[in-house]
Design a protein that fits this description.
Helices cover 33% and strands 29% of the residues. The chain is of the alpha+beta class and 314 residues long. The protein folds into two domains: 157 residues, Aminopeptidase (3-Layer(aba) Sandwich); 129 residues, 3-Layer(aba) Sandwich (Aminopeptidase), CATH 3.40.630. The radius of gyration is 21 Å and the shape is elongated.
Length: 314
């Protein structure tokens, strides 16, 4: 077996690392632009936590671990934990101990940053998937379980064919009833910004504020206001939904307002807006079976991927 060199990521390796990810992670197309946005300009990125495996001058493996340095906006602190969001070994070099060496390097890095727990891979804001795809990367799941990781739960990803979208009559009736009760569902307007962020801080602290902030910035630069929908009552926001390209969500309703049909109205309004933008498909990466049954199935969403979110005590 040829000697394996493990070295921290450096900029001159960018194209080779991206090529490796494209050759290895067949279910997750990762472009150079996506890698730059999710990895290199992430304020928590540290090259020491991104080991590269090299054999005979060729990159054959890459891993990405993150120990948060800057807190996520209004979210509970997570200084005790680290995250692994990527691990790839070229198919021709698997089962040679390279993945184990990369994993050991990442765990040692997280320990050096005083992390007590490692998670694969619910790192906000820049996770690629919410865990290991149990079908596309069954071998990867076995690898992590072999190295002491255990499943926390299994999130699902779903897709919806927007060409077949039909808004049920009961949803239209529910929207009219909500309007009579004082709840208005409408696209973004700047007057709603203060109430929107009060709602997000109270109900969904963390990465949702970034989604809203970036969407609003693009709307104010000319993007369509219908990419962001708001439900409000008596001057307070009670629900919110959003899309970016074909990615649907996040969507959420204030806990005290659930059960009124606000989420369904927001969902269909957002999906209709996507359809009118000429999009054929809507997808999201992360939900659970209970929410799918309660909300998404009726709109034609079907499960496309299932993940295993993993954890290990360090």
């Amino acid at each position: 077996m040829n000697k394996v060199q493990i070295t921290p990521f450096s900029g001159d390796l960018l194209d080779q690392v991206v090529l490796l990810l494209q050759q290895t992670l067949h279910a997750d197309p990762i472009s150079r632009s996506l890698f730059v946005r999710k990895v290199l300009i992430d304020p928590n990125f540290d090259p020491d936590g991104a080991p590269v495996a090299i054999v005979n001058g060729r990159i054959v493996g890459f891993g990405l671990s993150v120990a948060r340095r800057l807190p996520l906006e209004d979210a509970p602190p997570d200084w005790d934990r680290g995250y692994i969001t990527l691990l790839a070994v070229h198919p021709q070099h698997q089962r040679q101990g390279i993945g184990t060496a990369l994993l050991q390097h990442m765990e040692d890095y997280l320990r050096s940053r005083e992390r007590k727990l490692v998670l694969v891979s619910p790192y906000a804001p820049n996770y690629f998937t919410p865990g290991v795809d149990v079908n596309a990367y069954a071998g990867g799941l076995r690898f992590f379980l072999k190295h002491g990781y255990r499943e926390v739960y299994r999130p699902i990803s779903m897709d919806c064919n927007l060409l077949n979208l039909r808004v049920p009559e009961w949803v239209q009736q529910r929207e009219q009833t909500l309007l009579q009760e004082g709840v208005t569902v409408e696209p973004y307007c700047p007057q709603l910004i203060p109430a929107l962020f009060r709602f997000l801080r109270a109900e969904f602290p963390g990465d949702w504020q970034r989604f809203a902030r970036e969407a609003i910035a693009r709307i104010e630069q000319g993007d369509t206001p219908t990419r962001l929908w708001v439900a409000h009552e008596k001057g307070e926001v009670v629900g919110y939904s959003h899309f970016e390209g074909e990615r649907f969500g996040p969507i959420g309703v204030a806990q005290s307002q659930r059960g009124r049909g606000i989420g369904q109205v927001l969902m269909y309004r957002t999906l209709q807006a996507m359809r009118l933008q000429g999009l054929h498909t809507a997808f999201f990466l992360w939900s659970d079976d209970r929410t799918a049954e309660r909300l998404y199935n009726a709109a034609g969403f079907t499960e496309t991927r299932r993940f295993a979110l993993l954890r290990k005590e360090l």
